Amino acid sequence: MKKNAVEVDQAQVQAAEAAVETAKLNLEYCYIHSPIDGRAGARLLDVGNVMQANTTALLSIQRLNPIYANFTVTESDLPEVQQQMSHGMLRAAVRLPSDPESAARSGRVEFLDNSVQNGSGTVSLRATVSNPDHHFWPGQFVNVRLVLTTEKAAVLIPSQATQISQQGPFVYVLKSDDTAELRPVKLGQRQGDDVVVTDGVAVNERVVLTGQMMIRPGGKVRVDSSAPAVPSSKVGSLATGANGGRS
Predict the structure, then answer these.
(1) Are 171 and 163 in contact (CB under 8 A)?
(2) What is d(CA 200, CA 161) in angstroms, rounded to the nearest whole number?
(3) CA neighbor of 210 nearest in space, from 167, 175, 180, 168
(4) Residues 118, 178 within the same domain
(5) Are 204 and 232 in contact (CB under 8 A)?
(6) What is the pLDDT along the chain (247 residues), one digit of tens a residue?
(7) How far apart are CA 134 and CA 65, in angstroms?
(8) How many CA atoms lie within 13 A of 152 on its CB side?
(9) Count of the separate structural domains present in the chain
């Protein structure tokens, strides 16, 4: 009889422990925990609203740090992008349209879509950007420059210095005696307000920015001291561009 009583008591204890575990589980169901760290938006339901389990959204949570920058490149650029990605992870310079070029933040390109969009002929990419100060906000338009290669000691001149003739682009270069020389050039890609010169202008040569219509080759040029001619310069890297992305 005592043995039976002990077994009954043990069964009652186990049943009570199971009831406690069930109560704890039901209590956990009273709370919903976000799987990510982020900022919550406006709640979509209020107390008393009718909702359906697993179908009705309660609120939206956006991750702010790090943040994704989605952008596109044309399908003509895709082979070069694929080639460079095969050599390692690409970098993207991301900034707001109101930010200067120098304020662009570097991000890692971690996603390349598996198809070309039929309507636009573009391919989607995604860069992950550090955003601890919440400078970028979800849904904002951003300017993205995808860095494919780095060209050392590239020569840049202001875009306004270049002119076009039937023989191609040219610039006026000032000699040491302030006479103008018409110099055919080969232009590369643009970098903001500047353009890369792959051939025709050397580092530290002076180029004419304004008044080209008044200049004749070999003629004397008066340099305005308030707006001096700008010498060509070197930069450390070049990048192809992809604008109009979203964070």
Answers:
(1) yes
(2) 13
(3) 180
(4) no
(5) yes
(6) 566 777 777 888 888 899 999 999 888 888 878 888 888 888 888 888 888 877 888 888 999 999 999 999 999 989 989 988 888 889 999 999 999 888 899 999 999 999 999 989 999 999 999 999 999 999 999 999 888 877 777 888 888 888 888 889 998 888 888 888 889 999 887 777 888 888 888 888 888 888 878 888 888 877 776 655 555 554 433 333 444 566 5
(7) 7
(8) 0
(9) 3
Looking at the fold, whether 80 and 126 belong to one and the same domain comes out as yes
Domain of 211 in residue numbering reads as 154-237
CB 94 within 8 A of CB 119: no
CATH code (residue 181): 2.40.420.20
Residue 197: inside a domain: yes
- Cα–Cα dist 190/243, whole Å: 13
In a domain, 128, yes or no: yes
Q: Are residues 158 and 233 in the same domain?
A: yes
Supply the DSSP symbol for 156. Answer: E
What is the rounded CA–CA span in Å between residue 186 and residue 145? 22
